[in-house]
Design a protein that fits this description.
The structure holds two protein chains of two kinds.
Chain A lengths: L1 H4 L4 H21 L3 H26 L3 H30 L14
Chain B lengths: L1 H10 L15 H19 L8 H27 L2 E3 L4 E3 L1 H28 L5 H18 L3 H19 L6 H32 L4 H10 L6 H18 L7 H8 L2 H26 L4 H24 L4 H22 L2 H28 L15 H4 L1 H15 L5 H15 L3 H27 L20 H19 L2 H8 L11
Antiparallel strand pairs in B: 1-2
Classes of the chains: A mainly alpha, B mainly alpha.
Chain lengths: 106, 514
């Protein structure tokens, strides 16, 4: 009932994207599987996309929506490179987690 | 028929206004990207292994072409003032051109070092050079971006290519590990940067730096929370790229694990791109809000200076030492950023130019000393280097002393100018911290020099050089080292030309006239 009575304003979307961004950031820090960490980065980027779209609607400016396409392309490029690097590691050491990557320290 | 359909569809819709593209303004970037594509295509057709390192030669030629493309633009900016192109998305001013040249020089030196490295490791092929050129194009784009989105694209082009370069040495586990660490933390920071862009866009209504600067100068925001949060997130993004504390954690690992000539490029070219973006966004665009961001940059600078210097001293791996020292240097350049004055920008640019030669040269020596496998980077590997190869040791000593800020080298003047800028901006404590950290880090550089010259620093009587093969210095690497030494000492003796050029190179935001 309360939900139905509250109008969904822009700040809800901003809050949601901030929440998604935080989930992604925290996930990247706490998860140990390189693929899941990588998915968290994608989640962060898409959370930002939501912010851009919300602001674009608020400001009535198409620029913010155009940005989303750029971000999508960048995210795709990152996927290509990131999967390549991660597969390169996993092929040599199947099931490696972030904790196994500990040759470099000091 | 298709044409007819298109014409019909086009009838009711107003044509979209597309901005004119001033190709001349983009020529440095075009030369870099075009060179990379040519190199990739020709490299695919020609045999991969050849006795002459023409991949490296072509890369150096492309870097030279970039500098040649800058010259007419520099003249034009000098005569008619800075301008911007492509609907104000790309700015051409002294600042962007200066940084472009610095990045091109970094590419040339790194390419010369890479040639010998690839032969030694049996990894020949054009790909490293192609990626280096693409990464440089991204860095140049960051330096000349007049729009936060263009800057984000530049940042990503620069970074994504370098992620791959870090993992270049496929057979070495350390290289792969460095690539994963760099990639995960780098894309993490890019996401923060992008969120910062989004918040600034929300607060100011534009991603264009010119319009943002105008908006901030003309309006007082009732609620600054969004804008300040945007500043903070942008600063996190830049902090990662320039390796400033507390966003430095990737630096030692990545520098240690990545191929040494690639590190030479990371520490010079990538850092120059990061700082160029930082100066452009914060000093030039958010200048009116400097009281809000200056204290934070102040804190980051202090932390970078102290942590970089202190942690460098306790390392025993030379690459890690140099990694921490690069964090210390980032602190010095941040002093120039923090001043947020023209003097500060000039000092930061001078520092970047001088540092490019010092650090690229230092990692050049590290590349040579690393031997086959690129694994001999312990301090012990440098023992008695002066006796075995006096010239190489002398060159390394010059780079290290220059980084320590010994007079008559470029490093001294670089440090002098940033500290001077800090004092003029009345940041006395920061200047004091900088000088103390310079003393602490001087200890580190002298430690390496002592190990090289005194040989057995721990009292061993036996000749440490015994049984070690002579290090082969490839011709290309020798050229790179000679150039870097000549520049380091030359700038130290005759700093005037560089100082004057850096003074002409302040960032200015100009809207496109079209």
């Amino acid at each position: 009932m309360i939900l139905a009575a509250t109008p969904i304003s822009a700040s809800w979307y901003l809050g949601l994207s901030a929440l998604l961004f935080t989930v992604g950031a925290v996930g990247l820090l706490v998860r140990r599987n390189p693929l899941v960490m990588f998915m968290c980065v994608e989640l962060m980027l898409n959370a930002v996309n939501l912010t851009f779209v919300t602001f674009a609607r608020e400001l009535d400016d198409v620029g913010g929506q155009v940005v989303v396409f750029f971000v999508l392309v960048v995210a795709a490029a990152e996927v290509v490179i990131g999967l390549g690097i991660i597969v390169g590691i996993l092929r040599r050491r199947p099931g490696a987690t972030a904790d196994d990557l500990s040759l470099l320290k000091g | 028929m298709t044409l007819g359909l298109l014409a019909q569809a086009g009838d009711g819709v107003a044509p979209i206004d597309t901005p004119g593209v001033a190709w001349s303004a983009l020529s440095p970037i075009l030369v870099l990207i075009g060179g990379a594509i040519v190199l990739l295509v020709v490299g695919a057709l020609a045999p991969r292994r050849s006795r002459i390192g023409w991949h490296a030669m072509l890369t150096v030629a492309v870097a030279g072409g970039t500098i040649a493309a800058v010259v007419p633009l520099w003249d034009r900016v000098h005569d008619d003032g800075p301008y911007s192109a492509v609907a104000s998305a790309v700015g051409v001013d002294g600042f962007s051109l200066f940084v472009t040249v610095v990045i091109a020089v970094a590419v040339a030196i790194a390419a010369l070092l890479t040639d010998g490295y690839l032969r030694r490791e049996g990894l020949e092929g054009p790909e490293p050079y192609v990626l280096m050129l693409l990464s440089a194009a991204g860095a140049v784009m960051m330096a000349s971006a007049n729009d936060l989105i263009v800057m984000f694209l530049g940042l990503e082009i620069m970074s994504i290519a370098v992620y791959v370069l870090a993992g270049l040495h496929l057979r070495r586990r350390r290289s792969g590990e460095a690539a994963v660490k760099y990639f995960v933390l780098g894309s993490f920071s890019s996401a923060f940067f992008l969120y910062g862009v989004a918040l600034v866009y929300g607060a100011t209504g534009s991603t264009n730096l010119v319009r943002i600067a105008r908006f901030l100068a003309a309006n007082t925001l009732a609620d600054q929370g969004l804008l300040i949060a945007g500043f903070a997130l942008l600063l996190v993004g830049f902090g990662f790229k320039v390796a400033a504390v507390p966003f430095h954690s990737w630096t030692p690992d990545v520098y240690q694990g990545s191929p040494s000539p690639i590190v030479a490029f990371m520490a010079s070219g990538v850092k120059a791109g990061g700082f160029a973006g930082l100066l452009r966004v914060f000093v030039a665009t958010f200048g009116t809000y400097r009281l809000d961001w200056q204290p934070v940059v102040y804190g980051i600078a202090v932390l970078s200076l102290v942590v970089g210097a202190v942690l460098a001293v306790v390392q025993t791996d030379v690459k890690r030492m140099l990694a921490y020292s690069s964090i210390n240097h980032a602190g010095f350049i941040l002093i120039g950023v923090q001043a947020a004055t023209d003097e500060g920008v000039t000092a930061a640019l001078f520092y970047l130019a001088a540092y490019t030669f010092m650090v690229a040269g230092a990692f050049g020596v590290v590349t040579v000393v690393g031997r086959r496998g690129d694994g001999h980077h312990h301090l012990d590997d440098y023992q008695g280097l002066a006796r075995r190869q006096p010239l190489l040791a002398l060159v390394f000593a010059i780079f290290l002393l220059a980084q320590a800020g010994v007079p008559l080298t470029s490093g001294f003047l670089a440090k002098f100018y940033v500290v001077e800028a800090a004092i003029e901006a009345r940041s006395f404590w920061l200047a004091l911290v900088a000088m103390v950290s310079a003393v602490v880090s001087a200890f580190l550089y002298l430690r390496i020099v002592l190990v090289m010259y005194a040989g057995a620093g721990d009292g061993a009587d036996t000749d440490p050089a015994a049984g070690r093969p002579r290090l082969a210095v490839p011709a290309a690497a020798a050229i790179a080292l000679v150039v870097a030494v000549a520049a380091t000492i030359g700038i130290g003796l005759v700093p005037d030309p560089l100082t004057r050029t850096a003074r002409d190179a302040t960032p200015e935001l100009v809207a496109a006239s079209d």
